[in-house]
């Protein structure tokens, strides 16, 4: 059996009735919803689904369809960059699946979404047809509000669908990638400027620099800074696209050093979606000083040292990818 994950990002984080309806749409035979991460502060929700290739594609289509029905982008406001009601739809290989299988899913779904729903589709990541579109940030430049102008000028023609802007649903980026960790670090400041300056130092595209023992920028790290009104503090929001190369604890320590340099500090972190167990075990091994190194103790140490419980309780059965897969009956994969 092949197993593929899909982590759909929708542009709604406050209306729970809409989020629940959109999530229910993804419950199809052969696919299961693993986790729903509601982000009211960023007005964004991540719905993580896993299933067999045909089923996961159908689940993703139904979620995109329902999101387009219920979310009107003309009324949308958020600090998070986005281009559509169903904003991002990446396919991720898990069990007996390859990145090529995910590329096939991405193209098949993109054609269906454009043809049946009339939503322009951009392909990104490993599914990109144009190497210049591999990075999601390229497609999101200017966000939803800049999308209409990019359509008018012909700057960003979609990979699937006509050149007509859809004002209600916007557009969607569908792609294929490996496992990603979305990891936000909380700062003891309300200064969005400070968060943005730190993000500008660590993101992979930044010029080389150093902070203490850390060489910057960090490889495979996407980062932006923002202020979340709901929380009352700024965050450095990151995506780690190769967590084996740049693990969360290395990122956390680099941000701690940069925050100190800026006259503030780190107060904890926030995980968006799921995290592979290996990333927590690596952090636990790094921080653990005793000889008692069971999996449970290492994970407990990682949760504590990274401050993953600083905003809400961290339930390992819901937040660790392998645990969520086991609970869904798929077994341990990564």
Task: Write up this protein.
It is a single chain. By secondary structure, the protein is an alpha+beta fold. The protein has 2 domains: 3-176, Formiminotransferase-cyclodeaminase, Chain B, domain 1 (2-Layer Sandwich), CATH 3.30.990; 181-328, Formiminotransferase, C-terminal subdomain (Alpha-Beta Plaits, 2-Layer Sandwich), CATH 3.30.70. It has 11 helices and 12 strands. The chain has a 6-stranded mixed sheet with strand order 2-3-1-4-6-5, sandwiched between helices. A 4-stranded antiparallel sheet has the order 10-11-7-12. A hairpin with a 4-residue loop joins strand 2 (31-39) and strand 3. The model has no long low-confidence stretch (mean pLDDT 94).
